[in-house]
Amino acid sequence: MTNAPRLVRLIEPLIRADFRDAITGDLVERFETDLEQRGAVVAQLRLWRESFMALRHFGRLTLPHRENPVRSFIADVRYGLRVLRRTPSFAVVCIVTLALAIGPTAAILSVVDPLLFRPLPYGRPDHLAFIWDRGGNGSPINTGYSTIEDVRTRSTTLSSVAAVARWQPTLSTPDNPERLYGARVNWNYFRTLAVPMMLGRDFTSDEDTQTGNTVLILGHRLWERRFNADSSIIGRRISLDGAPRTVVGVLPRDYDDVVTPNAEIFAPLGYVTSLAWACRMCRHLTAVARVRDDVPLERSRAELNQISAQLVAAFPKDYPSVGFYLAPLQQDAMKEARPALLAILGAVVLVLLIAVANVVNLHLAQSIRRETEFAVRTALGANGWRLVRQLVAEGLSVALAGAALGLGLARALVPALVSRLPATLPRRAAIHLEGGVVMTLALVSVAIALVIGMVPAIVARRRALYSGEMRSAARHGTGHARARAALVVGEIALALLLLCGAGLLSMSLVRLFDLDRGFDGHNVITMNFQSSGPAYPDNVAVLAARRRVLAAAAAVPGVVDVAAVTLLPLGGGLDRYGVMALDRPLDHPERAPAATGYRVVGDFLKTMRIPVLAGRDLTEADSRDTVANPVVISASLAQRLWPGENPLNKRMRIPNSRRAASTVVGVAADIRQRSLNDDDARAFYYPEEHWIFPLNSAVLVARVNGNPAAALHAVRAAVASVDPSQPIIGVRTMDDVVSRSTAQRQLALLLFVAFAGLAVLLSAAGVYGVLAGSVSERTKEIGVRTALGATTRDTYALVLRRGLAMAGVGLLLGLAGAVATTRYLQSLLFGVAPTDPVVLFGAAAVLLGVSLLACLVPARRAARIDPMVALRE
Amino acid sequence: MDTFGELEQLVLLAVMQAADDAYGVVVQTAIRRKARRDLTLGTIYKTLSRLETKGFVTSELGEPTAERGGRAKRYYRVTAAGRRALQQQLSALRAMAAGLDIGLEVP
After folding, report:
1. Cβ pair B25:A29 closer than 8 A
2. Smallest Cα–Cα separation from A614: which of A659, A666, A650?
3. Residue of B nearest to A1 (CA)
4. Which of B28, B42, B71 is closest, CB to CB, to A54?
5. What's the rounded mean pLDDT across residues A484-499?
6. Is residue B1 part of a domain?
7. More confident residue, A574 or A705
């Protein structure tokens, strides 16, 4: 009871001393009673009203004039609203302009904040870091389990280290099988992150073994989606990949895995160092570490490098180079998205600046019309401060209305943005329009109000002081005109920056899509299917099922070629292996060149139309050939393994293959694998049967005649008919797969185009506004000129010269700005320099053209001025 | 002699109703219950301090109370002058209403 609401404590010192105790005490009492009788919302609303009125009648602060500030501010706002109501179109234009900029700003802030700025939802997130091995070329790579175990035992600066492996189990229910995204983790994973369970318990160390590994932890969303948020789930056995596991815990709602984005189901890893796949070279694990609270990251980093040096000395063949990376969790998880997000944030801030400049400009024009009013008020004793306050109050009405409308817009924009973010981006679920963003916007609105109130006020005040009498506005227009022209110049410069950005990004995308991918994805459809569970006990059964799926798909009318492959090029993940030429033994096998292995069933190269440059494609017989073990390699792998030689019939070794060595029977053209802009095309294709065990899941690729989108459904149905209990995911055309691989660029481009469009529109409106204003101010002058013999052409020139001068200065400034800033887009660009002259001057030309159009309307109006009418006025 | 407006009338009556326990919230609650008028505390204290200036009420600070976070209440009491003024005003009202069918005829 004694704990007064914050609002009361806030206003308490502002209440007149003789009534302070009585009133604030009553406010508290009233609030408590209302809370009990009417509920929190009503109580809160009433408290606001009570506090406001208490301040109004008993506020302590008074100005020199002895006027009550709250009361006179209300009067100002009321007056401002009346002014706005008198000129509704002016108010609407200002509010909509601001909303169009504030909406996207709020939406982008909502997206960027949880991704880049808000701390991750773990305990002491600043002490969490990834540990990466160092690859041959110095880049960070995954680690093997034995390495992680060694770091764990030798380090004194890390309080814990946990290994994480991706995991995509199938939730086997008879009616609705689903492939889930998850992770296999060391038992101390959630302890390392310092995340407590919402329900049940965390893993224990004896569950992180090969025998004890029969438990599960569910993510909150999965628990709601598939188990109806049932709290009795703890202890229940559910079937994953056909095997039962016991649910022991459910994660809290705000848990969000940035190590394996989208993971919502977790099982213990169950590794020991003696396992074949726990070796140092078996680099398929991600290591997450917590640095001790009292240890700075730097010290831990130094210690890890010492440990690395010891390990490399002990196992020189297992490490390509010395050193570990200790990378802060949030920074590292976002390192790919960061430049794009910051560029987009920068772009939207530019849009906001342009919008504010535009609204200030409108207010300046408006204040010319109100000059007489200001002069009267000054004559009646209003000092400059009073006028400024008046205009700020008006500005606040406009800014807050714009912010409110903008927030509505942002509510619609945020989900649209989230749906376009790359699927691999972590923290997507944390993106909402949050209170923090709303607060930021409120502050921004106040700042905007100050600007749109102050600028005209300063000009108005200066002139009210100097002129001292009421005059027609036209004679004093120069100060205003200069301020307005400066604003428009600024708008044009900023708009050019955005336009250059949009141009560079679209040029990059065009170049990317123009690239020869090495395969023809048109008319190809793809889907991920699976054969797991008790019905597929061994390799034979899995492979037989795969062939049945291919046969079913091939039987669909319109399907020309089909194949199954372990992973799709440009599909987001690659299987990389170090491969060796048998006739060229390496001193350092750990430095064997990495290449992507595609294990195929059926005619993969033919289906994807990947040309065979030499030798032949794989055939059905190759899968049974246990002597030669045929393999097809890409041209760049051939070049790397046997530079300048004929690779055909040469032998190479693929690690973990069931066969001793493979014989090159063909050379295929290079294809784009990781992304359109990554030209590492080393690849090899070989039959799934040669691998130690077939993967339970595979990607079907099917080439169809005609529209691939139309055939999707029929092919999916055919695949499902083989075993309806198996989930099918990722049903899409290959074109779609390619397009998705550029999701981040496309989103950046879309936003830049939208922002640039808005910016160009606003600055054109600015040019138009200034010229139209000057034409109507100079009606008489133009009339005189016409009467004295000026031609239509002269009049056009008069107006156009002024407009183009503004545009020209703006464009020059903008070009200079573009040269200075477009390099921040570098990571998003491809095949185009940040200062590409074609793009920069092209953008300038577009903007010049638009400005010219904006000049023409007022110029035409000027040319039509009838001298007789103008002079008579 | 000072007269007063409707607001002052309501507040004065409410103070009388509350007898020894007349402070802001009590006055506000009484007016809300009986007169169905939702006045804010700020308005009520403003009216009370006006009445005090006219000499119709007096006020004194009470002891600090724990349930209000150690804040004291300000208690009001109607003076003899206030009582007289109220009587005059109400009897004037009654006299004017006599004979009219507006629910005020019966004393």
Report:
1. yes
2. A666
3. B67
4. B42
5. 91
6. no
7. A705
Residue B30 sits in a domain whose CATH number is: 1.10.10.10
Query: Cβ A2–B70 below 8 Å, yes or no?
Result: yes
Looking at residue B105, its pLDDT comes to 54
Per the confidence metrics, is the pTM higher than 0.95?
no
pLDDT (tens digit per residue) in B52-71: 988 899 988 888 877 787 88
CA A582 to chain CA centroid, Å, is: 46
Domain housing B38:
6-63+73-97
Of A19, A28, A58, the CB nearest to B68: A28
Helix (H, G, I), strand (E, B) or coil at A600: strand
β-sheet bridge partners, residue A796: none
Residue B55 domain-assigned (yes or no): yes
Statement: residue A587 has pLDDT above 80: no
Among the partner residues A21, A27, A33, nearest to B72 by beta-carbon distance:
A21
Specify whether the CB–CB gap between A282 and A148 falls below 8 A: no
- Band (A590; pLDDT cuts 50, 70, 90): low
A69-86 vs A40-58: helix crossing angle, rounded to 10: 110
Distances (CA, A) of A728 to A83, A170, A422: 62, 10, 21
pLDDT at A64: 46
Give residue A357's pLDDT: 92
Neighbours of A846 (CB within 10 A): 16
Per-residue b/e over A553-590, b at no fewer than 16 CB within 10 Å? bbebebbebbbbbbbbbbbeebebbbbbbeeeeeeeeb
Tally of CA atoms within 13 A in the half-sphere of A466 that contains its CB: 8
Report, as an integer, the average pLDDT of A140-149.
90
Interface size, chain A vs chain B, as Cβ–Cβ contacts under 8 Å: 78
Contact present, A520 and A514 (Cβ < 8 Å) = no
Q: What is the pLDDT of residue A174?
A: 66
**Contact with chain B for residue A16, Cβ under 8 A:** no
Which residues lie across from A733 on neighbouring strands? A525
User: Is there a contact between B24 and A22 if contact means CB atoms under 8 Å apart?
Assistant: yes
d(CA A140, CA A301): 14
Give the pair of three-digit tokens for residue A712: 């999707």
The answer to whether A23 contacts B45, with C-beta atoms less than 8 Å apart, is yes
Tell me how close the Cα of B31 comes to any Cα of chain A, in angstroms. Answer: 14
Q: Does B43 touch chain A (CB under 8 A)?
A: yes
Span A817-837, average pLDDT: 90
Grouping H, G, I as helix, E, B as strand and the rest as coil, residue A746 is helix
What type of residue is A17?
A
Angle (CA) A605 A610 A616, round 5°: 60
Q: Is residue B17 part of a domain?
A: yes
Computed over every residue of chain A, the mean pLDDT equals: 86
Q: What is the number of domains present in chain B?
A: 1
Instruction: Tell me the DSSP string of A628-691.
Output: T-EEEEEHHHHHHHSTTS--TT-EEE-TTBSSS-EEEEEEEPP---S-TT-----EEEEEGGGB
- Judge whether A691 and A599 are in contact, CB under 8 Å: yes
User: What ipTM was predicted for this assembly?
Assistant: 0.88
Q: Are A798 and A782 in contact (CB under 8 A)?
A: yes
pLDDT tens digit string along A173-204? 766 778 888 999 999 999 999 999 999 999 99
Which carries the bigger pLDDT value, residue B65 or residue A676? A676
CA closest to A55 among chain B residues: B42
Q: Does residue B102 sit within a domain?
A: no
- Average pLDDT rounded to a whole number, residues A66-77: 71
Chain A: nearest CA to B46, how far in angstroms? Answer: 7
Residue A207 has pLDDT above 90, yes or no: yes
The encoded tokens of residue B71 equal 């804040």
